[in-house]
Specification:
197 residues; alpha/beta; Rossmann fold; 6-stranded parallel sheet; 7 helices; 8 strands; 20% strand; binds flavin mononucleotide; NAD(P)H-dep_reductase; Flavoprotein-like_sf; NADPH-dependent FMN reductase
């Protein structure tokens, strides 16, 4: 087993003039500083992710699932990942449709892997979005990480691409400590024993 885990940080919003890439960039910096991960930022805006799904379920179709050609690089990155951070805003007390579509087009890519959350928004800091994501990721047999990061009122609490809260890097370290533990444990487990149906 390699000493580092492949971490994919997903930019969940694809909106014009979105803030998501700013948050993801800072998260990537914190992840790299942690030293446990090979870090890659994956921006959903870079891929073809239609809302209309094939008739079959990705759960049972496996590699034969008919995804569009423009989704292939996204699927490859999700496949290769040992751990995820989903960076999500809050839209109408949930997470963006772009992120739901990317999740729903895949299944085994999430299974038996840890997923952490970094959210931002108004007063609730995107917590409604994360509560919904935790539910959804459980259905995909992912392991959700207890300690996430939530940035309320990011428009006044971020400056020059960084959170104003001086404790934010410490909270990120806690998140990455837990994510690294689960990533290594599940990487080993997946290699040793196939995940049960
Ligand atoms: C359709 C829509 C719905 C929103 N609903 C909420 C909400 O329920 N709670 C909240 O805190 N912020 C809400 N916001 C504000 C977003 O959190 C804020 O615009 C944020 O920048 C969105 O992330 P993005 O810039 O990466 O797209 C909403 C924004 C949009 C576009």
């Amino acid at each position: 087993m390699s000493e580092t885990s492949k971490l994919v940080i997903v930019v969940g919003s694809v909106r014009e003039a979105r803030f998501g890439p700013v948050v993801a960039s800072w998260v990537a910096e914190q992840a790299s500083a942690h030293g446990s991960f090979d870090v890659e930022v994956v921006d959903l805006a870079d891929f073809e992710i239609p809302l209309s799904l094939p008739a079959a379920s990705p759960k049972y179709a496996g590699d034969s699932y008919p995804r569009p050609a423009g989704m292939a690089p996204l699927t490859a990155r999700l496949d290769a990942a040992d751990a995820f951070v989903l960076v999500t805003p809050e839209y109408n007390h949930s997470y963006p449709a772009s992120l739901k579509a990317a999740i729903d087009w895949h299944f085994t890519q999430w299974t038996a892997k840890p997923v952490a959350f970094v959210s931002y928004g108004g007063a609730a800091g995107g917590r409604h979005a994360v509560l919904h994501l935790e539910n959804v990721l459980t259905e995909l047999h992912a392991v959700t990480i207890r300690d996430g990061l939530a940035f309320p009122n990011y428009f006044v609490n971020w400056d020059a691409g960084r959170p104003a809260d001086p404790d934010a890097p410490g909270y990120a370290k806690t998140l990455f400590n837990q994510l690294a533990w689960w990533a290594a444990a599940l990487q080993k487990a997946r290699a040793e024993v196939p995940y049960p149906d």
